[in-house]
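Example record

The entry below shows one chain as it appears in the dataset: sequence first, then structure tokens.
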Amino acid sequence: MYNFLMYICNSIPPMKNSQLYKGSLNTIIMKLLEENGKMYGYEITQKVKLITQGELNITEGALYPALHKLEADGLLDVEMEKVDNRIRKYYKLTKKGATETVNRLAELEDFIRNMQTIVKPNFEF
């Protein structure tokens, strides 16, 4: 996962408006869940921040709508666990979500490869 997110961050120049990252948010979430099994929201934000060395900060305002949409689409399941006398909501991929993660990662990798070709064309024939 570290290599994948760093690949994304290194492929896209830093921007004040992170619309490019926003379009990849669901795929990033799904990839993290694929690797970690289940995670809670704050854990997801901190893992992304750590992996990208602070280059990508996911806000709660972006994260939770994305998690709810993925859940509504049948790609995530939710588990509630009591941790330190409070309820924590964990997210994990469904079987459909695991399959969709593979598809979205392949699509994102193709997109990044195509964008690199456009941004840094190789004129050798």
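Notes for this example: Strands lie at 38-40, 76-83, 86-93. Helices lie at 2-11, 19-22, 25-36, 41-51, 60-72, 95-119.
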